[in-house]
Predict the structure.
Amino acid sequence: MREREVEIVIKAGLDAPASAKLARVAATYRCEVSLMRHGRKVNAKSLMGVMMLVAGEGSRIVIETDGPDEVEALDAIAMLIGSRVVGTE
């Protein structure tokens, strides 16, 4: 299992289009992909789950991956939503 905390740098945050893109990207990986914010953990492959985080620009979220392609998934999701790594893996 891997995890990384990132800051969302997308101007609109995880609005509907960004959430849909994130869910589509996450769905291409075999591993489990979760997002966490303020104690809430959601499945990143679920559009509704991602939108439930209500994460705007500047929000910090934790990306968690677990499975055969976890490293690749973690890197792809982190690059998609934020370029500023806040924590460590």
